[in-house]
Design goal:
By secondary structure, the chain is an all-alpha fold. Helices cover 78% and strands 0% of the residues. It has two domains: 161 residues, Orthogonal Bundle (Tetracycline Repressor, domain 2), CATH 1.10.357; 125 residues, Four Helix Bundle (Hemerythrin (Met), subunit A) (Up-down Bundle), CATH 1.20.120.1780. Helix 6 runs antiparallel to helix 7 and helix 10 packs antiparallel against helix 16.
């Protein structure tokens, strides 16, 4: 039996390890995990607080909760992946260290991976849906938003502002989606839609800022962002407007729907972060530094919002 040189064996192992890491990295797992929190928010806020103990007291309840989080993880990962497949040439300029532009994964392999993720998410959602009040709505929602993710990557992003609206709605769907796991559609509390609005508005605002940051690469590939078609003044104004809407929908529930002290404290901190992003753009919209920190403040505001929503019913 032929003996392989130790160096060759090591190289192959490193290649396999590198490929595995690239297949995880391309999903952007941290973003997927944070996104999955929106499902938990929908579950925790989708039913009366008095029913929460009974939900977590049964194996079926835990299966619904964990299953919903895992399904969303795969949906978000698949959406990130298909976006990278269509954006590989742009990312070669704007984000060359991502797995596809650096060659860690081929486009053909990425397409197969996308189909596998879609299949897993759809089948698992059908199984989980059988234990929820919305047996058909849960898997249908997953299939619909997988389609939206593909449409956005294929046609939505190059369209500019319509694509920004798609991102806001599609990537906030975890909040109502989570509530589908515990409540019938007619019984979903109003606070769910306030949370959905806040998330959507923040994402749209950040997409407008990202369009300002990525003007060079987007212009080369004729991506019709607001920054490229209307200029940074219009993009900054749009971002500020959507940030203001996010602050309104984030704050409104504290006046009548939520009394949690933890929520109110985090809400004020989140509002301050979003307000800071607005100030940065108003002070210097053409400064790359201001654009970067504005985007960072919006991300911080979104994180604080997620934690606030998780704690709201507790």
């Amino acid at each position: 039996m032929a003996i392989q040189p130790a160096g060759e064996v090591t190289t192959r192992k490193q290649s396999r390890d590198g490929a595995f890491q690239a297949h995880i990295e391309v999903l952007r797992p941290v973003n997927c995990i944070f996104g999955a929190l929106t499902v938990l928010i929908g579950i925790l806020n989708g039913i009366l607080p008095s029913r929460l103990p009974s939900l977590f007291a049964s194996q079926a309840g835990w299966f619904v909760v964990v299953g919903g989080l895992v399904v969303y993880f795969f949906v978000a990962g698949a959406s990130n992946l298909i976006n990278d497949i269509f954006d590989v040439d742009i990312d070669a300029i704007n984000r060359p260290n991502r797995p596809l532009p650096r060659g860690a994964i081929t486009r053909a392999a990425a397409r197969r991976y996308f189909l596998v993720l879609c299949a897993i998410a759809t089948v698992l959602s059908a199984v989980v849906g059988a234990f929820t009040p919305n047996t058909l709505l849960v898997p249908l929602s997953v299939a619909f938003f997988l389609l939206v993710g593909y449409v956005y990557a294929r046609w939505g992003k190059p369209s500019g502002f319509p694509g920004n609206l798609m991102v806001g709605a599609a990537f906030s769907f975890g909040i109502p989606f989570g509530s589908f796991h515990v409540s019938s559609v007619t019984a979903i509390p109003a606070v769910i839609w306030f949370f959905f609005g806040t998330s959507a508005f923040l994402l749209i605002s950040r997409e407008l800022v990202k369009g300002m940051e990525d003007m060079e690469g987007d212009r080369k590939f004729n991506i019709k962002t607001v920054a490229n078609t209307r200029g940074t003044r219009a993009a900054a104004a749009g971002s500020v407007a959507f940030s203001a809407l996010a602050i309104i929908t984030f704050t409104a529930p504290a006046f009548s729907l939520i009394s949690s002290v933890a929520f109110i404290v985090l809400m004020l901190l989140g509002d301050a972060a979003v307000a800071a992003s607005m100030v940065l753009l108003l002070k210097g919209r053409d400064s790359r530094k201001n654009q970067k920190y504005s985007s960072l403040m919006l991300k911080a505001g979104a994180f604080l919002g997620l934690v606030a929503y998780v704690l709201a019913p507790l």
